[in-house]
Design brief:
This protein is mainly beta. Helix content is 12%, strand content 33%. The protein is built from two helices and eight strands. Strands 3-4-5-7-6 form a five-stranded antiparallel beta sheet, with helices on one face. A three-stranded antiparallel beta sheet has the order 1-2-8. It is globular, with a radius of gyration of 15 Å.
Amino acid sequence: MTQLRGHGLALTVRRGWEARIWLPEAPSPAENRPVVRLANFALPATKDTYAEGVADDLRPGKVVASLAEFAPRLADRGLYAPQGIPPFGLEDLDPRALQRHLPGRSGLQRFFSVRGRAFSLYVVARDGAGLQEALRELHTQLRGLVVGPA
């Protein structure tokens, strides 16, 4: 296991998984907040927030998640009122949740807050052997996310 830390976030990454934390460089008026990418395969060197390009090459049974932070003023209210990493599993995946429809792929998006910080979790998965276990491992790792104060 490996510890990944950055921008007030820390994550323990299991063997067989790869993760990155970065701060986007979007031009103003965008508010650049940290993004965490986690996948059960070698991640390409892309920094698009929701892994659009990665989904194209997703192999069967693989999953990629993007955890994007939003402005603190959104935390703990409305869409971001739920607290902590929400539960999810195979039954929550839906092809209609994807930004772009691709055969055999489905996804989910959840909004929540942790310690006064607002997040969106976007998951893309490809049908195939081992997907249910991959989603369990993903959820376990995300539940271990340590979030520092805003």
